[in-house]
Amino acid sequence: MRNPALDPRLGAPRRRRARGLACALLAALWLATAWAQPGGLAPQALRAPDVPYQPTNVEVVKAMLKLAKVRRADVVYDLGCGDGRIVIAAARDRGARGVCVDIDPQRIAEARENARRAGVADRIRFLTQDLFQTDIREATVVMLFLWPKVNLDLRPKLLRELKPGARVVSHMHDMGTWQPQQTVRIAATDRERTIYLWTIPRRAKQGRS
Q: Which one of 11, 12, 60, 162 is CB 3.0 to 4.6 Å from 166, fit for a cystine?
């Protein structure tokens, strides 16, 4: 079949119109194909992520789970989960349940697919949410790989919403004046990494008025 946009028998104006029509048809075909895929076109993030995506080293993932003493009864939240590797490892290797939270839908799509491949998708929930807005009251363990300022901004939420005894583990960054219960340094493949552990304290009882 001859492409009318290239047909030398057509005049220049008709060829331009033909090229425009061909481009429009190709664009329509691309859109139809994209929407036909599972999940369709990837939606935009709710807002700019707080930190750039940087996957956690595998050795560090193992160390974070060990430091938090993750077990089958735990519900592990990863705030800013990226490709889901921490929660997936918690479900696959420790039998825990988990929740992947990320503001970027592309990361959540990757995490969901990775969990499916690992055979643990039924033990994980996936939330495309702003981590500052996510309800974390269910969590017994919270995993973080954020930035210092984000950790500090998040600290009041952690202390307010998490139950006493819940564990918080942060890769690389501390919580300012909130002293960690334990600090561990890991000789990862790229460079030494530091992880911190905190346990949510019991709340002081309010006196009667």
A: 162
